[in-house]
Amino acid sequence: MTIGPIENISGIPLGILGTHLGFLEALVPDDNGMLPRNNDGEFVIAAGARELIELSPVKIDLIQISSFGTTNPDEKD
Questions:
Q1: Residue ranges making up the domain that contains 23
Q2: Residues facing residue 17 across a β-bridge
């Protein structure tokens, strides 16, 4: 069974939290300030958000991502 798109008529943007993908596994930088990456070298948070957007029958309007002061500045660009 395939689910068709579901239209959000509430007027309220729908989103996800980065913590839905795992706090330590997706958001917290390592001791060198590097953000978690998957086996393809992509940020875990970006890959996970993309997967949720592709799977969801409801449009996801935004994602809230936590940032840590210990993150290497090059990781944020």
A1: 15-68
A2: 64
